[in-house]
Amino acid sequence: MMKTAEYSQEQIVHRVRELGDWFQNLNLRGVSTAPHHFLGDYPTVKWRRFAHSIPQDLRGKSVLDIGCNAGFYCFEMKRRGARRVLGIDSDEAYLAQARFAAEVLGMEVEFQRLSVYDVGQLGERFDVVLFMGVLYHLRHPLLALDLIHQHVAGDLLIFQSMLRGSADAASLQQDYDFHETQIFDLPEFPRMHFVEHNYAGDPTNWWIPNRACTEAMLRSSGFQLIAHPEEEVFLCRRKEQKGEPS
């Protein structure tokens, strides 16, 4: 852990305001960055519901947080002793917030501006990859999962997405006759809801899956589901795909 930067509380308050609207509510030495978040103390309230399922001891592990925002999960992984934590995001405003938060908290975390579609540029695999709250903001979500599997996923993937529709897991056959159409009307059939315009006032909400679709996409991209500790959170192991070099 690096030395905590010398900021007065007034300086922290000023800089938090200067850095614009924060989506993640961080506690920066007594200063809340998003105290009026519409989801409450977010993402702490969500983290508390699945934190028990993440290894408490991450010493010696490398961690990649894709779509890190202001760095909340990066800091939680560092608190568990991760050797190296890298957060990437395509939004420089979020990265500026994350870098400032790391200074205030004294957290040795790296941040880079990088899209999920460009993770191959990192040229390395990470023991733990977090992909939290990003999928539904992407125009090409399955491609993103394929790239994560191909380039950066090591052992554990921690995945979260907003879900809508049925919360039931589908039990489907491996194949269906061409004339079978009723299966597609089942609420638990894997499906993605496409948002042409806005959802919750956000024009970047493009695809919102149901639970069955989320699980099917993860499996399709080469991940084995090992736990579902929270409504929107899935823990996965990376599996080798056919034709992939061992």
What does this structure look like?
The chain starts with 8 loop residues before the first helix and ends in an 8-residue tail after the last strand. It has one domain (9-238): Rossmann fold, CATH 3.40.50.150. By secondary structure, the chain is of the alpha/beta class. It has helices at residues 9-18, 44-50, 72-79, 92-105, 141-152, 211-220; strands spanning 27-28, 31-32, 62-66, 84-89, 110-113, 126-132, 153-160, 192-194, 207-209, 223-230, 233-238. The radius of gyration is 19 Å and the shape is globular. Helix content is 25%, strand content 22%. Helix 5 (141-152) links the parallel strand 6 and strand 7. Strands 5-4-3-6-7-11-10 form a seven-stranded mixed β-sheet, sandwiched between helices. It has a two-stranded antiparallel sheet with strand order 1-2. Strands 8-9 form a two-stranded antiparallel ribbon. The protein is built from six helices and eleven strands.
Query: How do the SSEs run, as a string of H and E?
Result: HEEHEHEHEEHEEEHEE
Summarize the biggest pleated sheet: 7 strands, mixed
Report the mean per-residue pLDDT as an integer.
Answer: 95
Give the name of the CATH superfamily: Vaccinia Virus protein VP39
Distance between the termini: 35 Å
